[in-house]
Amino acid sequence: MAHGSGDLRGVPNTLAADDGANGEGSSIHGRKGKDIVLEVPIGTVVREMSRRPVIEREDDFLHNPAWDDEKQGQDWQIEQYKKRNIVIESRKKKPEKLTHEIEAEERGLTMDLKQWTGEPILILKGGKGGLGNINFQTAEIKMPRFGTKGESGTEMNILLELKLMADIALVGLPNAGKSTLLSQISNADAKIGHYAFTTVSPQLGTVILRDGEYERSRFVVADLPGLSFRDEMAESVLKHVRRAKVVAYIIDLSSNSCYDDYLFLKRHVNLRIGLDLREILVCNKADLPGTEERMQELKTKIQMSDRVVLVPICAKDALGLRKMIDLMEKMIEEARAEEVAAQNEQERLEQAELIGAWSDRRYNA
After folding, report:
1. Which of 23, 50, 63, 151 could form a disulfide with 127 if both were Cys (CB 3.0 to 4.6 A apart)?
2. Does the pTM exceed 0.85?
3. Euclidean distance between CA atoms 301 and 164, whole angstroms
């Protein structure tokens, strides 16, 4: 089940549910095995890598060892049961599987736990218990001398990947001022230093906007470690924020290569997060002399639109942050509205598929 925030460091490498207990005489059922519930933070993606039975069996039947030496009785009972079962199964009409059910079986288990689940979600079932001899009593077999073994459990290898539930990702080169900005606009206690790679892991902060005592809006901002020129590092950093609705490029105006820095950052974002994202070019250190020309160069070379805006700030002195926060709020609201519309359309298509499949089954019947 998914709840709260955090990370996956407390998740054990191996989990195994307990076995059930054997049944007893007088039609007493055996005890079920105890369930195991794994708690993961919201934002976890679960992917099935492989699965196989724990036990490979050639025979599903169980009988008293004292009857092994008898050449009659046990064999004909089992053979008769098999023939009877084949006839019964052939009469059952199994419903056709829907397209999404077939696709799910082919690709294996995939779940995106991007919201609180409330109740645990079943991802792996234990094997059904075996049946005692009394379950096979028929008019021909008055005293069955066999039962069935319990089904084998299943072993599954899964991959857990945590994608942060951030609305905005702060992306920039080392020492561009991302942590300073996060600490100024949110409740995050970000580590700040006058050296590169101060932030070694993603940090989250919540921005809460109020009109008096009324909370108008809130959104989550992720401060990422600065991107270097190693592709491996860019992949490890940006994979955490693939859910981000808005990318805020933190451009250091004290650099002589502001435009090239932006192109470098945007290339990695396009490759690892996605194209056509809403962008805010946050030009930090705009209080320094000579930065107006560099900012004008960015405006000239980058085509501005409703989805790409530029705002100058000084994170250290909290200058220009109000305008930046208003832009963030506006972009997030637009992105959330688009997300809801896309989700409603997806649900409509799935409902249409279900109605079509139900109509086909009714017509064929």
Report:
1. 151
2. no
3. 32
Structure tokens at 38: 């794994």
How many angstroms separate the CA atoms of 314 and 320, rounded?
7
Q: Return d(Cα 110, Cα 317) in angstroms, integer.
A: 46
Model confidence pLDDT, tens digit, residues 129-172: 777 777 777 777 777 777 777 778 888 888 887 777 788 989 98
Q: What is the pLDDT of residues 51-83, one digit of tens each?
A: 888 877 766 666 655 455 555 544 666 677 777
104 in Cβ contact with 123 (< 8 Å): no
**Cβ-Cβ contacts under 8 Å for 300 (sequence gap 6 or more):** none
All structural domains of the chain, each given as residue ranges with its CATH number in brackets, are 44-162 (no CATH), 168-341 (3.40.50.300)
How many angstroms separate the CA atoms of 72 and 79, rounded?
12
CA–CA dist 335, 251 (Å, integer):
23
DSSP 3-state of 237: helix
